[in-house]
Amino acid sequence: MKILYLSDDFPPDNLGGAGVVAHNLAKAFKELGHDIYVVSTTQDKSKEGSYVQDGFKIYKIYSRYHRRWRAYFSLYNPQTVKKVSKIIADIKPDVIHAHNVHYHLSYHCLKIAKDSGARVILTAHDTMLYSYGKVYDGSKIPLFKDAWDHKLRFNPLRNLIIKYYLRNVDKIAAVSDALRRALINNGIKNVETIHNGINLDDWMV
Predict the structure, then answer these.
(1) What is the pLDDT of residues 61-91, one digit of tens each?
(2) Domain regions of the chain by residue span
């Protein structure tokens, strides 16, 4: 089976939590005999391209913009979407597993993934599906809180467009029960809890 991972960050260039989880999953499924591919991003133009690591092919797409535009570029990033579409068309994956795509790859890639005919899974590692940043509980965010907090960086259509793109996902996985409840409380449906796995061999003494 061909499995393609989408993640804004991916080791070794970045050791963020979501990227590390995607990397561990990619290695594990490679060991099970599947064909693995990864699409990630880089903010260094010289690092754009493709290479083989851990037995699977990784595509790095260049994307860089000022974070004040994140509420717009996170929905559709013209720097990445056409390249992602071409890669998916070339690979023809059976499954596409997205992790963090809310900065550079953008949520539009979920539609590209679904249109390819693949089964699409999205793992939510945080509350960015409905919030602009960290939240302190799982309750519903008041309608105008983000507008008040983020002023000119606020996009009034952001959350509605994200929910539109989420219709292209066959299943959303939340990494904890608390995150699952928070997503549901804020109108995100089709969510199940799937905790991040660990390699027990790393803890054996």
Answers:
(1) 999 999 999 999 999 999 999 999 999 999 9
(2) 2-197
Listed in sequence order, the residues at least 6 apart from 117 whose beta carbon sits closer than 8 Å to its beta carbon are: none
- Contact (CB, 8 A) for 87 and 3: no
Residue 45's φ and ψ, nearest 5 degrees, are -55, -35
Q: Which two tokens stand for residue 15?
A: 């050791």
Strand partners, 41: 61
- 21: helix, strand or coil: helix
Tokens describing residue 195? 């905790």
**CATH fold group of domain 2-197:** Rossmann fold (3.40.50)
Task: Name the pLDDT band for 2 (thresholds 50, 70, 90).
Answer: very high
Cβ(26)–Cβ(55) below 8 Å: no
Q: What are phi and psi of 155, to 5 degrees?
A: -115, 110
In sequence order, what DSSP letters do the residues of 91-155 get, joined into one string?
H--SEEEE---TTTT-THHHHHHHHTT-EEEEEE-SSTTT-SS--SSSSPPPTTHHHHHHGGG--
Residues 6+ apart with CB under 8 A from 20: 11
pTM of the model: 0.92
Least Cα distance to 96 among 73, 112, 75, 72 occurs for 112
Q: What is the chain's alpha carbon radius of gyration, rounded to the nearest angstrom?
A: 17
